[in-house]
Amino acid sequence: MHIVTANEMYEIDRFAIENAGVDGTILMENAGRAIAEKVVSLVKKSEEILVLVGSGNNGGDGFVIAKTLLNQGYKPTVLQLAANEKIKGAALYHKQLFINYGGTIQQLQASDEITVFLNNTDVVIDAMLGIGITGTLRPPFDQVIKAVNEVDKLTISVDIPSGVPADEGVLDFIGIEADYTFVIEEPKMSVFLEHCTAYYGNWSVVKIGLPHQAYANQIKRNTWVEQKVRTTLPSRDAFSHKGSHGRGLIIGGSRQMPGSVAMTALASLRAGSGLITIATVKEAISSIAQQCLEATFLPLASQEGVISERQQIDISTYDAIAIGMGMGRKKDTGLLTRKIVAKAKVPVLIDADGLYHISEELSVITNRKSPTILTPHFGEMAMLLDTTIQNVIAHPFSLAESFSRKHGVYLVLKGPNTIVSDPEGNQWVNTTGNAGLAKGGSGDVLSGILLAMIMQRQKMTEALSNGCFIHGKAADNLVVKKHSEQDLLATDVIKGLASVFRTFS
Predict the structure, then answer these.
(1) pLDDT digits (tens, 9 = 90+) for 198-219
(2) Which superfamily does 6-219 belong to?
(3) Residue 467 among known ligand-binding residues
(4) I need a surface site. Which of 57, 208, 289, 438 has the fewest CB within 10 A?
(5) 162 is in an annotated binding site
(6) Which fold has domain 241-504?
(7) 418 is in an annotated binding site
(8) pTM for this prediction
């Protein structure tokens, strides 16, 4: 699926109408019918249905939904929130069609009347406002949205919950808190924004027959779904050997934090790495070795329990490097980190404390010739950009894209909807994972999986997107079958990788 902004969706609709010759009334009919089919699966004929409609295309969809439900024996009440003269075009056509089918329309005269309507209904269908809403909501929409959110009624939104922005950049808004949202044709950007996702409830996409030429490869944002994994994840050759699947080096850890690199190494081996070497301080090796018997070790000089810059590391024999997990933020460690990143001629994945160290000198990554992968969470991204976490929350797509382009790196911006960006500005959003991953160590496990993926026979963007999908899918499987989101640990996710790989074997 593509992920679109409001303007991109308008342009796709315009192309369909002007270039492909699809009538707008037909598109509205298709949208309303498709959503009505979804509503039928959720609502009984005995239940009272209140359809809230505005003046635009969203309201037009509402008229089609009401007409379709009426024709199937349901009892929809249409409550129009806009003045009659504001209903125009295709929306006016479908309003009249609803009336011709025997439907009746009531008009909201005063905002406080909404309470009476809500008290006499079982289901609310929100077709008030579409994707073009900007700025502060005006009456009666602001009061109606608040009233809907305050009652315990099944609430279904059409395309987007009314009041929720379609695009990134808006943090302060009033929006319908939907139980279900049926998104028309393509998910809008806000579906994947941390502060907007919850408003959608359970969401799914309905197709309305837009021609594929309307996209013309102009949309560079897509979701990464299971089918993409099936078509891109490489299988293991029956005659391969351990060297065929990559020699990975993990640099990190400290006396106080030996677990980070242990989890990264275990996850990388579980995800298919052929050989893994852990470069860490001598004091940490014994505890790590007990957890990861399959790894080999490269002892590093330490100062007060952390990696020292005095250490020389031969990195010439490795196929990829992961650096930063649990290494601490000492000055000497930073010098060594930047030296290795600048020197390495293989893909380097930088995570955790490694991101802190390169943030002081971003030219180190900009000047690299080999692929560089950064895996920040929102706080680390804010650090890299010298901005606030709130700004990253508000603009994750654009900030990730511009950073990747500017520095020529692959960026894995971790969150409830992880975004993978490449140096050309293409982006993919992961569709797996749950709140159980909001635990210490989850990022270390993801780094290990990604390290394994980038050493297999697949494109870099495929490797990173597949790794994120597999990481989240393991957590999803575990929550369904064995764990809860509360008790799930990062080490459980490592053990859960087997179930995911069996699915794709």
Answers:
(1) 999 999 999 999 988 887 667 8
(2) YjeF N-terminal domain (3.40.50.10260)
(3) no
(4) 438
(5) yes
(6) UDP-N-acetylmuramoyl-L-alanine:D-glutamate ligase (3.40.1190)
(7) yes
(8) 0.95
